Structures are given as C-alpha cells and as structure tokens.
Amino acid sequence: MSPSWKFSAFLVLLLVSLVGTALSSVVSVGDFNRDFYITWSPSHVNTSADGRQRGLKLDQESGAAFDSNEMFLFGEIDMQIKLVPKNSAGTVVAFYLTSDQPNRDEIDFEFLGNVTGQPYILQTNVFADGFDNREERIYLWFDPTTDFHTYSILWNLHQIVFMVDWVPIRVYRNHADKGVAFPRWQPMSIKVSLWNGEIWATRGGHDKIDWSNGPFIASFRNHKIDACVWRGNARFCRGESETNWWHKPKYSTLTPAQRRLFKWVRKYHLIYDYCQDSTRFQNQLPKECFLPKY
Which of these, 9, 211, 229, 238, is most buried using a 10 Å CB contact count? Predict the structure, then answer.
C-alpha cells in the first residue's frame, strides 16, 4: 500500500467521522429567530430584539404558535417559561415534541390555566406509534406565573424524563422488548403554542375563558436544544458517543437523588395518573402500568 493511498484512505475516514459528528448533534444558539419559525398568527408573537425572549398572545381573534426549523431524534430540550398570570381559566400553553407521521410519536407538556387563586395544573402525555391516553397531571409546587421556570425533556433509548427545574416529575421507560410502544424511530420537531382550550382544560370545561382578563400572554426564553438533528441519520442518532451523551449508561435511569425527588412529586403533587384509572380502561390498564417506572 503506497503512502499516498494510505493518506487518501485516512482523509476519507476523517471526513466520514466529521460528517457523522456534524450530523449527530446540535446545541442551539438560543435565538428564537434562528431556531424556530412562526406557524400561527405572527401578529400575536412578540420577539425581543436579540431573539432571546418570545411572547405569545391569546385574544378573541387568535392564539399563536411556533415550531423548530429542525427535527430531532433523541436529546434534551429545555425551555424557560412564564405562564399566563391571574385568571387564566380555559387557556392552554403547550411545549412538546411531535413527529409528522399518521402513527405519530409525541412528548407533551401542557399547562392548563386556572381560576385566580387555584394552582396551575401541568399535564404530560406520551404518544407512541399513534396511541396516546397516557396523561398524568400534577399541581406545581410554585406559582409559575411570577417568574420563569425551566421545563425539560430528556429523551434517549432508555427513557423519557419530564423535568421541572431539574426535578423529574414523570418517567416513561422503554419497554419495547415487552411489547410497549416507545418513541424511538421517528424524528420530532419542537412546537410551542398558546390557545383556547376552554372546552376541556379547566375543571373539564366548566370554567370558560373570561375575555375581560385578556389578552393572555405566555413568555419563553433561554431555550437549549442539545439533540441529534435529523438528516435521515438514524444510525448516528441512535449511537452512543461523546456527542450523543444522552444515551450513556448514566442516563439510562434516574440517579438516587432524582428518585427521591420523583417519589416526592408522586406523593405530594400527583393528581391524576392514567395507570390508576381502571374505570377509564375498563379494568384493562395498559401493559406499561405493571412495569418498572425507573
């Protein structure tokens, strides 16, 4: 083998390695104008001059929404959110990941507005291979309307972890080997919206939106996207590497400290768990309800 051939082979391998790294992960620049595009009612979207903060408005004319420019397969997404203050009954703020296939995968944070003085409800849900009905609800242990708090989704081959200010509030394990659907093949985009959900959001639709309190504003800032950008590169996205840190064994389950916090949330703040709703499922709870949560 000639030296020139060896050098050419080395360059090819180096290029493949660099391309793989480039395709596998991105850390966002934190600029809403660069990372997202507005999908609904631009007149109801207000972005700061530096692109670091964005507000969505809901009034009787419209709500608003924006989506990520890229799609992702695994990673961690963080968003700081300040929710609609005072009487926000009937409003819904959504921060979620979703695929674009009919049998869609989806990972949801939904913030359900409240009557003044009542606690905000945070609903989470997971769609896997087109099936949902996996709602959980908690009362937040703080007022989410007075300041920004960080809401995070860690999604890897082992688990999906929903976190509030780094406290794990929900874990959805990968039990695909036991016949439980888990989002692991379809890339997803990031979506954020503020909309009228008064037919169901607050006390099952009993409390409607009081438009005299409007317009309703939700604010977002300091987002971080540390995830595998989808370019048809499932092999890279599913592989464990220094870049794809989320697949490493240390992130395959909760740490002891996280487990203590998780149990605290479940004991004191959980108000609905689909796995405890035997009436809804006619005493045939989904299979994952009988499997380990972490």
Answer: 229
